[in-house]
Design brief:
heterotrimer, A alpha/beta, B alpha/beta, C alpha/beta, A: alpha/beta, Rossmann fold, 2 domains, 9-stranded mixed sheet, 5-stranded parallel sheet, 13 helices, 16 strands, C: alpha/beta, Aspartate Aminotransferase, domain 2, Aspartate Aminotransferase, domain 1, 3 domains, 7-stranded mixed sheet, two-stranded antiparallel ribbon, 16 helices, globular
Chain lengths: 374, 463, 529
């Protein structure tokens, strides 16, 4: 029996159609409704659920009452059970979190959620990496890498798992954008956390390219390569990301998943550093022997400016170009289709200086020339 | 470029159809399509090639004319071995591998090319029974590649970087192994007893450090003798956490104990004796056999075909696919997979199916019997010492001619005049053996052939 | 149901024998072939020798091979052959990059002749003059075709040729004492994965270049940033699998030379440039060809193939031995172990003679004009197919080189089809089997999403190209009309959907029949306990 959890955020995405950039907060939600916005997520959830009908007999669906999932399931003809949740007339983040926690406790095999980045953030808060999750895209702003490309695709992935395909899980970034800033026309995002997400399997693996490595094995390979080249007298500032996390592990400390950690001589010398702390550490380095190790964050291919703003223009100026080491799996670069990586440090002059080609480490003794653009 | 050149292999070289196609594309000339190639890089005029034989009849005559300058093992009595042997090739083997359904197929899926997948799964399975192992790969290029790959696998499995290799190994194979392992792994030779040819236990013990990934030897040896101390050798390896890799002759495994039974972790070799014509050394296929253990299976760089159910309860097949879930620095080199020897794998499957257990036993017995008889007959020739080294043999023996005062080269020249292809000259590669030659006796050799050889040797070495 | 020539689509069903796995056909006591008996003295000597073997060296239990009469063996394997779709049977243009051209039957006959098959490699050279002459003359032909100076015909395939090339590069670097300073090899993402793989095998660090998103050619700026004095070599294909010829290739090779490196040309895609351009003028020091692609030797289900390595004069000393040389005086051909710094053996003996015989015959049959026509028609056929595929709903080419022509193959994408119907490459592939077709995607990683690669070669006539296009068009129509049906394809092939889960789960996979028997009873019933 495949135990599937489903949480629908009925208010997600209501801003988009009416020209608003999001519906976080009661005020903007009210505004959206004034403008005639109608809930989007339930229909999207329905599209994903419809794909599951052929496997009806092997799925046990656990969802939330009413608009948070039950309605969509019923409309679809999928029998379901509901968790013990009593949301008010307006559902909110607390409801999402409570439901997610309950489903994780009940041991669901996959937690499907329909919503946007905000919903993803709530799920991440509630369950972290505890249970495999997958987003049905229904929000306005989708910057997180935890969503399937379309509701249909989400349904297909869920169906495959329901039919017994073992999931290939990987950590995907949950992002969030500063709402105020966004409405003011600025895009300022940060890396919020991670969810464990099933990936698409590639049928052709192993046929003509020797034995393929899992994403994790590749990240380890990258870490080993970088470690080999980091001499003990160098201050290494390692940015957030699942790829750089492997390097932090090798350097001896788990480090913070979401923050910048500083290492020197194999020791952790600064944990979860903000800009000020980084500048302090750098000041201690004679001759500026600094390396900044970063990996593109999120699905948009941003190297600086989305989720690692601790690397402020000040900090970046103190490491010269050769000191910026990029780490990225081939899969991530391929997903970008060969498009350049982007930077948005906030200082456009610096952005222009940093543009150009870098050797991104993609494996042990393997690298790809990537173009970085402002 | 002449537009009138129409060739049977190029249907669209006919001018009318070319015009039609160009029209449909909206182009005037084929030149337009590769206009981007700079002038400086273009061939001026035509390539400098000989005048062609355009008709099939003239082509056939031309090529056959050249080939007629060869003298085959069918026209001569062939006693050559050294890794390639003149065994009987069943007509059914040629029938099956001549079928163009197999011959002209390539890399299709387990649906439209189901036949190939099943045939190769059966090859893996039949070889597994012959080698007494659980896993066998789809064939790689040849025995040398299999040996080299098996040693690299051992390196990855043990995370060590040195291999110990018997110094009686085929020189060509040793060259291939050393080259393939360079620069990641080091090859160290282990000595042999000058009389028995067997690996010297004390030398092995001295060199067996905890840097050693594997010890490698061939059974039968390149020089023909059977290595009888396999158990001790593998024991010494295992005691130090190393693996034992044995290169075996599949034609011997109907009568001789498979290496897996005396401690070999990986068994490798070449399938040429199993239904392939010699093709001047151009028909080879390498195999690597291993136990049913993930830590071995994960390290195969070649394809492994497995069996799987289908939605309609049929036998389905496909590539066994796995992901390495962790990284090990030494495995940095994940090797490569390419077009290797699938059709020969299918051929070997046909061969083993025809032979069955009884046939393989008879084959092994036949080879041993002829070789044993040859030892007697050749040993009786004045000045000839047989064997030059070793105690027990399978289908090859090193024969020493120092007592005749003649070199192998001279003897073979004289033998050739009598229509006999004498044994391969070992004097350069194994100088300690003096003027010795490697003689092979497969099941197609008759008692009369051996008698004729003995008489001829007596004649050419008489003073 | 006859084939409507206007519709051009057959009512095909592949042969389906439901043939058991061979072990299940065994019947105790049956024999497939008998082994010759020796005379009484031979038998006696044999008995003595076996008795003298130490205990444990004689096989105790016979191998558990099936026992089958001869005709049964014939039937079994010929039935399997019917369940296989060779290029002689289908319009095999869908196996892109594989160059599935016609393998002439006369060449097969020549290669199967006893004058090729019954030669032992260690025979006295005087008895091998015909074979050596063919090897030598084929080398001369390849020299003209490529412009390079010497060829080694040994490797058993393209990847093994690359392995030999990597060994030569390594030897060349080591020979100059530069192993610590020249430790990088540059390649492109569209080059065959064996290029970086062999580079790593030889201890080099690999730097990969992506294409320029507009031109589709390797990004020269990225390349300039990658090349340095640490560059030992460039390993590159041209044109690449997407079908675009890198017109700046000479700038690439010049730059590597300027930094003291050498350049290797993966000529797997030579079919579209024969007689048009050569390795030499493009600045290459090394190259290899696939005899079983460009030069018509059949693919054999995955081998035996043959890859030949060509080098410029300064790299000749490193070639694997033996080469084949010719004595001007007396006209004798001989095996030449001269190369003083040889990398040694990379293949048993001297390579794949039957493949070389076929290549020789093929080239000698076509001649210079013929080879040029092969390239020209491959390009014509490909551009014809290219235009038509682009017109299909749901199909597209990656946005490189818009409006430009292609060389001899194209990589396309079914991303739009996937977005609009949920049907992607995998489903199209499963359905094309129902129409006697093949279609191939791409090497990993999939830079082009939902990729498929078609290479028409010169061997198929216009109406055959049209037939394949009609099939593809029909499947695209089906995707829009009845996607569910496609999701369960194939329907008219040899078998139905294989459950791949049994192939990547260590607890369920069975690579041999004995493994299957250990784990399962009946039809995949897990064994208890």
């Amino acid at each position: 029996m495949f135990r599937l959890g489903l949480i629908v955020n009925p208010v997600a995405g209501m801003g988009g159609r009416v020209g608003l950039k999001g519906t976080d907060g009661a005020e903007s939600l009210a505004r959206a409704r004034e403008l005639g916005a109608v809930p989007l997520a339930p229909a999207r959830a329905g599209q994903a659920l419809a794909v599951l009908l052929p496997a009806l007999d092997s799925i046990r669906l656990l969802t939330c009452p009413g608009a948070m999932g039950e309605a969509a399931a019923v409309a679809c003809g999928l029998p379901c059970e509901t968790v013990d949740l009593r949301p008010g007339a307006e559902t909110g983040p607390d409801d999402t979190k409570a439901a997610a926690r309950m489903m994780a406790d009940r041991g669901v095999d996959l937690l499907l959620f329909a919503g946007g980045d905000g919903t993803a953030r709530d799920i991440a808060d509630a369950v972290g990496e505890r249970v495999p999750c997958l987003g049905i895209p229904a929000g306005v702003k989708i910057h997180s890498a935890v969503f399937a490309s379309t509701p249909l695709h989400a349904g297909e992935l869920a169906l495959a798992l329901a039919r017994g395909k073992r999931p290939r899980l990987h950590l995907a970034e949950v992002m969030d954008i500063d709402e105020e800033a966004f409405r003011g026309g600025e895009v300022r995002s940060r890396l919020y956390g991670y969810l464990s997400v099933p990936g698409d399997r590639r049928r052709m693996q192993g046929q003509k390219a020797g034995t393929p490595k899992s994403e994790k094995a590749m990240q380890e390979a990258i870490a080993h390569d970088i470690l080999e080249r980091l001499s003990p007298d160098v201050l290494a500032l390692v940015g957030p990301g699942s790829t750089t996390r492997e390097l932090k592990r090798l350097l001896g400390r788990e480090g913070t998943l979401l923050g910048v950690d500083a290492f020197k001589g194999g020791r952790l010398v600064g944990e979860d550093c903000n800009e000020r702390r980084l500048l302090e550490l750098i000041a201690l380095e004679p001759g500026g022997n600094v390396r900044i190790v970063v990996t593109p964050i999120g699905g948009q291919g941003f190297l600086f400016g989305r989720g690692n703003q601790q690397f402020s223009p000040e900090v970046l100026r103190r490491a010269d170009r050769e000191g910026i080491w990029i780490a990225s799996t081939q899969g991530k670069l391929a997903a970008l289709g060969g498009s350049p990586l982007k930077i948005d440090t906030g200082d456009s002059a610096l952005d222009r200086e940093l543009m150009g080609y870098y050797k991104a480490v993609t494996g042990y003794h393997e690298s790809v020339m990537v173009r970085v653009e402002a | 470029m002449s537009e009138k050149f129409v060739h049977p292999y190029i249907p669209n070289s006919a001018p009318e159809v070319q015009a039609e196609m160009l029209k449909s594309i909206g182009a005037k000339d084929i030149e337009e399509f590769f206009a981007c190639i700079p002038e400086a890089l273009r061939v001026k005029g035509l390539l400098d090639l000989p005048k062609p034989f355009l008709s099939e009849a003239s082509l056939k005559r031309h090529v056959e004319g050249i080939l007629s300058k060869n003298r085959t093992s069918g026209e001569l009595r062939c006693f050559l071995g050294g890794g390639c042997w003149n065994h009987h090739v069943p007509a059914v083997c040629d029938e099956v591998n001549g079928r163009s359904e197999f011959l002209t197929a390539y890399a299709g899926e387990p649906y439209e090319d189901h036949g190939r997948f099943q045939a190769l799964f059966e090859y893996e399975s039949l070889m597994a029974e012959l080698l007494d192992v659980d896993v066998v790969n789809v064939p790689t290029y040849d025995g040398s590649q299999a040996a080299a790959t098996a040693l690299r696998m051992a390196g990855r499995i043990t995370k060590r970087d040195e291999v110990l290799v018997a110094d009686t190994t085929s020189p060509d194979r040793l060259s291939a192994i050393t080259g393939y392992l360079h620069p990641d792994m080091k090859v160290t030779l282990v000595g042999h007893d000058p009389k028995s040819g067997l690996m010297v236990g004390s030398d092995l013990a001295a060199k067996m450090t905890d840097r050693v990934a594997a010890v490698y030897f061939e059974n039968p040896s390149y020089l023909g003798f059977i290595e009888t101390e396999g158990k001790a050798i593998s024991g010494a390896a295992h005691a130090k956490g190393a693996l034992c890799v044995v290169y075996a002759d599949p034609s011997s495994l109907g009568v001789l104990t498979p290496p897996s039974n005396y401690g070999a972790d990986l068994t490798c070799g070449d399938i040429q004796p199993l239904g392939m014509h010699m093709h001047m050394g151009g028909a080879r296929g390498g195999f690597i056999g291993a136990p049913d253990d993930e830590k071995f299976i994960e390290e195969y760089p070649s394809r492994l075909f497995g069996i799987a159910p289908t939605s309609h309860r049929e036998w389905g097949f496909g590539d066994v696919a796995w992901e390495r879930t962790s990284f090990a620095k030494r495995e940095n080199a994940k090797e490569f997979v390419g077009t290797a020897a699938a059709l020969w794998g299918i051929t070997a499957a046909v061969y083993l199916s025809l032979m069955g257990p009884a046939g393989m036993k008879e084959l092994g017995t036949a080879c041993m019997a002829r070789t044993a008889y040859a030892v007697k007959r050749l040993g009786a020739v004045k000045g000839v010492r047989v064997p030059a080294i070793g105690g027990a043999f399978f289908k090859e023996i090193p024969v020493n001619f120092d007592g005749t005062g003649k070199t192998v080269k001279e003897i073979n020249k004289a033998l050739l005049e009598k229509g006999i292809l004498g044994g391969h000259d070992l004097s350069k590669a194994f100088p300690a053996l003096g003027q010795s030659a490697l003689y092979a006796f497969t099941e197609v050799v008759t008692q009369d052939d051996i008698d004729t050889l003995a008489d001829a040797l007596a004649a050419v070495t008489a003073r | 149901m006859g084939m409507d020539m206007k519709e051009k689509i057959r009512d095909f069903h592949q042969a389906r024998w439901d043939e058991p796995v061979i072990f299940e056909l065994s019947a105790p006591g049956e024999r497939g072939i008998l082994v010759p008996e020796g005379g009484p003295e031979v038998e006696a000597a044999g008995k003595e020798a076996m008795a003298a073997l130490p205990a444990g060296m004689l096989r105790a239990a016979p191998p558990a091979l099936p026992e089958m009469g001869q005709m049964k063996v014939v039937k079994h394997f010929l039935r399997l052959s019917q369940e296989n779709l060779g290029a002689d049977f289908n319009i095999d243009i869908g196996q892109g990059t594989c160059t599935m051209k016609y393998s002439p039957k006369v060449n097969d006959k020549l290669a199967a002749s006893p004058k090729v098959a019954d030669l032992h490699p260690l025979q006295d050279e005087s008895t091998l003059q015909g074979a050596l002459e063919i090897l030598y003359k084929t080398e001369q032909l390849l020299k003209s075709i490529s412009g390079l100076d010497r060829f080694c015909l040994h490797p058993g395939g393209g990847s093994q040729a690359l392995s030999g090339i990597a060994a030569i590069i390594r030897a060349w670097v080591d020979d100059q004492g530069l192993q610590d300073t020249k430790d990088e090899i540059v390649t492109t993402i569209f080059s065959h994965p064996s290029n970086p793989a062999v580079a790593k095998l030889k201890g080099f660090k690999v730097i990969t270049i992506y294409p320029d998103p507009v031109t589709g050619r390797p990004d020269f700026e990225a390349f300039k940033a990658a090349v340095s004095d640490r560059t030992a070599a460039l390993m590159i294909t041209n044109p690449e699998d997407i079908g675009l010829y890198n017109d700046r290739i000479k700038e690439f090779t010049d730059l590597v030379h300027a930094h003291g490196g050498i350049c290797s040309y993966d000529q797997a895609n030579a079919n579209g440039i024969l007689g048009i351009t050569r390795a030499k003028e493009a600045g290459f020091d090394l190259c290899f060809f696939n005899i079983h692609k460009t030069f018509s030797s059949p693919h054999g289900c995955g081998g035996p193939g043959c890859g030949v390595i060509g080098v410029a004069e300064h790299l000749v000393p490193y070639l694997p031995i033996p080469l084949v040389s010719h004595c001007e005086k007396g006209g004798r051909y001989y095996l030449d172990t001269d190369p003083p710094k040889t990398v040694g053996k990379i293949k048993d003996f001297y390579g794949v003679l039957p493949a070389v015989v076929r290549a020789y015959a093929w080239i000698m049959n076509l001649g210079a004009e013929g080879l040029l026509e092969v390239a020209r028609v491959s390009i014509l056929n490909n551009n014809y197919v290219f235009r038509k595929v682009l017109k299909m709903k749901g199909a597209g080419a990656p946005p490189y080189a818009e409006g430009e022509h292609r060389m001899e193959q194209v990589r396309y994408s079914f991303q739009r089809l996937k977005d609009e119907t949920g049907i992607g490459f995998a489903e199209v592939q499963n359905r094309i089997f129902d129409y006697a077709g093949h279609i191939w995607s791409s090497h990993e990683p999939f830079i082009v999403p939902e990729p498929f690669t078609i290479e028409p070669t010169e061997s198929y006539s216009k109406d055959e190209l049209d037939e394949y296009l009609a099939i593809l068009g029909r499947i695209v129509e089906e995707a829009y009309a009845d996607p569910e049906m496609l999701k369960h394809a194939p329907h008219r092939s040899v078998i139905h959907h294989v459950d791949h889960d049994y192939l990547d789960d260590p607890k369920r996979w069975a690579i041999t029949w004995r493994m299957y028997k250990k784990r399962f009873d009946g039809y995949f019933e897990p064994k208890k306990g």
